[in-house]
Amino acid sequence: MAQQRGKKYSGDLYARKHGTNDGFLKIGNATELTTSKESESNQLTSTGRGEYGEVLESESVPGATEISIKFNTFDKHALARVMMGEAVDLSTTPIAFTDEPLTVGLNWLKLAYRDIDETTLVLTDDADAVIDATTYEVNPRLGLVRFKDTATVTAGANITYSGSTKGSAGYQIDANTLTSLPLEMYLDGKDRISGQDGILDMYHADLSSDSDINWFSDDWWEGGLSGPLIKDPGKPTMRFTEYKQQS
Questions:
Q1: pLDDT value at position 2?
Q2: DSSP 8-state class, residue 220
Q3: Short-list 166, 239, 153, CA closest to 203
Q4: pTM
Q5: Nearest to 26 by CA among 213, 185, 229
Q6: How far apart are CA 55 and CA 78, in angstroms?
Q7: Sign (positive/negative) of CA torsion 102, 116, 94, 110?
């Protein structure tokens, strides 16, 4: 008879969009993978005088298998899942702009572009004279400009600006554009007690983000996904396989 031992698992969690032939991506540094299944008991109870409340018949009604995932490292795809969107790479081709209109005002003024190459930015007043660059400051990341007290242009004046963006590489995520994340997932695991390899197949999970992101937190961010496992035809909802170590 095999000896019963305690279990502790670690492993790597991989996922891809369900129903596709996409390559699998690792879901961050997984700190939690919890599976749960609840069932309800549908009971017929007696109303008899001597046995009131006793169970005469009982039927167990199984519920869905739910999973919950937590992870604390991110690439663009992991962050997109937390934000319920998709990561799209930014174009690295600089955009040139010429004679864009701008009305002078107080505080920071918004330009038509971000990722500005400051070395190319030129502001011109309504007399087509170049405005001294020392009389204004630029936030190139946001595409903002603010005039100093030394500026010769006044509030309400119509000016123009020309220049180029840097074409910086990066990505962009439009949040909350997805209502669910249908994923095919696998845990490539290892029993830390016995050393045996284990694989948990989750063929179809319908997940959504349950994360709160504190963008200014001093703690490591933690992402979370949760939802039910779906039963696909010809496959179990979930399958666990463990391999004995070869001697």
A1: 67
A2: P
A3: 239
A4: 0.82
A5: 185
A6: 49
A7: negative
